[in-house]
Amino acid sequence: MKRLAAQAQEATDRGAPLEALALWREALDLLPPGTGQHAQVTAKVTALSQQVDALGLAAPLAEAERKRSGMPKVLASMGALGLMLWKFKFVLLLLLGKGKLLLVGLTQASTLFSMLLAVGVYWTVWGWRFALGLVACIYVHEMGHVASLRRFGMQASAPMFIPGLGAFVRLKQSPVDGREDARVGLAGPIWGSAAAVVALIAAVVTGWKGLSAIAHAAAWLNVFNLVPLWQLDGGRGFRALARKQRWLAVAVLGATWFLTGENLFLLVGLAAVYRALATPAPEEGDARTLVEYSLLVAGLGALGWAAKHWTGATGVL
To answer: How far is the C-alpha of 2 from the C-alpha of 11, rounded, in Å?
Structure first.
């Protein structure tokens, strides 16, 4: 415990909040809940989590810059252009890191085996190309959760697929508050939506409507995950919303249902009404969670509409 606390404090002093956050979480696991020490370390974890959250993408970029030497002289001599190129290097490294994370997940035997099992199940119904595309989109969705968990210093299992039901990531450490839970929960639909957009763009470029069908199905799955109940991603997001914010989310869902005519949004909206009326809500909600949830609803509505009209499919989303 003392060793972890010393390492965490040293990381904080070095200006490495991501490293410090992971170390304090590890220390927190060693303390019994309800004790004074547990409360003190929880406060440290919460403060660092808020700092990392506020930094956003700047946090991993700052970590990358801290671990590398200063700007090369040749770039320094180029003035503003050199500085821009130097900063772009770290943005590129960050993007490559996301790609590396997607590949690392495939090195886990449990993930790869369950993925192949899921592909086999979907293959028998829709063919191998659609099965591969759909499973890939689900995988990206789950790795969004993994990336967010890592960002907040939380340990978790690799994705595990359940053929016919989707996939899940098992948390080994718990979020300290609703804000953190919402970030982790909505990261899956954010990454999953990006995968669906890539599939739709590929459909437009190649002219293969099968890719558009994959984009449509991926959008449907991500909308379903926004249902604000139980352990679904939407349920985690709603945990951070005040009552008024929940009603605003209901309004966005209602507007999206009205504009798209997709009944799935009505289902999600009814669940949101229940959460707004019948369940406890924090006094102060998280504005960013409301923005992310609303943009996901509107964006997935537009994506599903575009994919459906590209394929000519009806009644899927």
So the answer is: 14
How confident is residue 100, by pLDDT bands cut at 50, 70 and 90?
low
Strand positions, DSSP E, 108-181: 160-162, 166-168
Instruction: Name the strand (E) or helix (H) holding 190.
Output: helix 178-206
Domain ranges of the chain: 2-59, 68-105, 108-311
Q: Does the pLDDT value for residue 253 go beyond 70?
A: yes
Report d(CA 268, CA 245) in Å as an integer: 15
Distance CA 221, CA 166 (A): 9
**How far apart, in whole angstroms, are the C-alpha atoms of residue 219 and residue 225?**
10
In angstroms, the CA 76 to CA 190 distance is: 37
In this structure, how many other beta carbons lie within 10 angstroms of the beta carbon of residue 290?
22
Q: Does residue 112 or residue 84 have the better pLDDT?
A: 112
Q: What is the pLDDT of residue 317?
A: 39
Q: What's the DSSP call for residue 166?
A: E
Q: Count helices and strands (H / E) in the chain.
A: 14, 2
Residues linked to residue 156 through DSSP beta bridges, in sequence order: 171
Instruction: For residue 158, give the DSSP letter.
Output: P
Report the DSSP beta bridge partners of residue 162: 166
175-197: pLDDT as tens digits: 889 999 999 999 999 999 999 99
**E strand residue ranges, the chain:** 160-162, 166-168
* Six-digit token string for 277: 């009326």
